[in-house]
Amino acid sequence: MTAWIPLLVILPLSGAFLIAIFSGMFKRIGGILTPLFMLILTCLGFMFFFRETDVLVYHIGGWELYNGIPVGIHFVVDGLSVLMVAIINLMGFLASFYSVSYIRKFTGEKYYYALFCLMVAGMNGVVLTGDLFNMFIFLEIAVISSYALVAFGIEREELEASFKYQVLGGVASLVILLGIALIYWNTGTLNIADIAIVLKENGDNKLISFVQVLLIAGFGLKAAMIPFHAWLPDAHSSAPSPISAMLSGVLIKAVGVYAIMRLFFNMFTLSYEISMLITVIGAVSMVGGVLLAVGQWDFKRLLAYHSISQMGYVVLGVGMGMVILSVGGSRDVAVLAIAGGLYHMVNHAVFKGLLFLNAGAVEYKTGTRMLREMGGLSNNMPLTSATYFSASMAISGIPPFNGFFSKLLIIIAAVQGGFYLMAILAVVVSIITLASFLKVHRYAFIGFSRFKNKKMFGEAPFGMGLPMVILAVLCLGLSLLIIPFFRDIFLSPAVNTLIHTLDYSQPILGLLP
Amino acid sequence: MMTRGMTNIVKTTTRLICGVIFIFGIYLVSHGHLTPGGGFAGGTVMAGAFILLVLAFGDDVKHLRKTEEGSSTLENLAILLFLLMGVAGMLFGANVFFKNFLEAGTMGELFSAGVIPFLNILIGIEVAAALFTVFLAFVIFKEEEK
């Protein structure tokens, strides 16, 4: 099964350039090739859940050790990366399928699909690679394509959002690169597993603490945690809707939160101060995001602020796990906190992706994103309305939907770990989230129509409807992850990767040629 | 009659110097595995030769747009071939992505180092075409504004 790993990067990369070359001859090639490739990638991603050994390592170029240091790049498939790969490619497939109908109103289709494939290739690379500098390269591939995709509408607003995103993203990349350079200077190796061993032997030092702060700032900017969130509401609301779903659903997770989790659990030695910093950042994002969101009247902007808030839950859960592990507290509580964080990350990808697709369908049919100008859409667009209802209940944590269970895990872990303030905040934020989504429901979907021209809007076309229905079913279906049978296949391996912090290095260095 | 481009002095100098620059770029690319430089540096120099020609002689927008299309396609083709070289490593020999599957040869000779010279050449084409495309996009944008 190891031989299939590089396909996760080769397929989307080749797709991007094939589309760019051949779309001159065949107009429709982008719309056919992208969903097809994404479907294959999704199947590949889910295949890796059923791998024979716990960790698969692929050595690119077959380089051997040099003076005991692994110099080549290698791809690592373990519990955490396979979870990320599955989310990325599933959301990529649904978003690209949705794009086929949605993107017809734009010009320059071929650039859209080529950039889409490049973005997916970059994200797959980030979550697969076991090399720190290679992670930076793939991160730049993903992020630079997203800069172009945010500006795809080339109106004034889109260009401004993209420029803001580029400037802040550039600062983040610079900070991350500086951090990586300092690590290389200090340890003399770039392999994450090898760095972990070297750092463990050298013990704590001031430079590494500085690097940790740099990396929190850099990846925090990419993940739009609260002090660094300024670019996200603009960028995610200006992009075409399937791209918003990709950006909010998976990009901020793959290049931001995933990188923080991987580096701080498996590479650095956990320290109480840094873990507490991450937890506080998560809590501040959770509260701040929802307070900023509740007053918004732009549908997509409201969703974008909720992304900050929901990612706050993820970082809070994972951060609490880090704190408990670093002070040597109960392992079971740490497992619960991390599982809650990861579970909420999967759930957030599904329901936030669906909400952005809903917003896209509404905008596609009515031409507006302002809630005050809508109303009565549940009569005209029953499918969009129903799927929106499912997603909004999931994000606000109403029982049968998936969001309830992940928030419950986080809150139980917070109470058991002694973070009573965090537990109360998590409950309060969940209630405000519900209020803000009921507001959208009230203004957009029920009541009387406030549209200027009183014509009837039809339902969104099939190509846009199907992904929304699949995601709405997933909103309910992912609740099953709480059942031990499914949890052991999908979620537990990822939690184990994080909880056994330095064991990450053992299989990777052991498997080197 | 309106003449395009710059003065005769510039045109003559460009005519003399442009070929030399281009050959220097090819030298940098082809000796990438032996000397400092390589695909990226050589590609930049090659793009410089083309950019110099367009600056000195000028061109009309229609023709420029056609050139841009061509160089954009060339760029995509080069990067796709680069990827194919990596995939070829999977198909021949050790079944590893980006495996150096050719004979390494003697160190210091022009024909050595297996696939690395070929990868350098592809990077050279890619970088030259990409930089030239970026330059043309700016020129076309400015011409259209007039």
Could you characterize the architecture of this molecule?
The complex is a heterodimer of chains A (513) and B (146). Chain A is mainly alpha-helical. Chain A has 21 helices and two strands. In chain A, strands 1-2 form a two-stranded antiparallel sheet. The two termini of chain A are 18 Å apart. The relative contact order of chain A is 0.11. The mean pLDDT of chain A is 89. With 146 residues, chain B is an all-alpha fold. Chain B is built from four helices and no strands. In chain B, helix 1 runs antiparallel to helix 2 (39-57) and helix 2 (39-57) packs parallel to helix 4. The A-B interface holds A 3, 6, 10, 13-14, 17-18, 20-21, 24, 58-62 and B 69, 72-73, 76-77, 79-80, 83, 86-87, 89-90, 94-100.
Provide tags for this entry:
heterodimer; A: 513 residues; mainly alpha; two-stranded antiparallel sheet; 21 helices; B: 146 residues
List the helices and strands and how they pair.
The complex is a heterodimer of chains A (513) and B (146).
Chain A: H1 7-22, H2 29-47, E1 56-59, E2 74-77, H3 79-102, H4 109-128, H5 132-150, H6 156-187, H7 192-202, H8 206-223, H9 232-238, H10 241-266, H11 272-294, H12 299-326, H13 331-366, H14 377-380, H15 382-396, H16 402-416, H17 420-445, H18 462-477, H19 484-490, H20 492-499, H21 505-511
Antiparallel strand pairs in A: 1-2
Chain B: H1 8-30, H2 39-57, H3 61-91, H4 116-145
Helix pairs in contact in B: 1-2, 2-4, 3-4
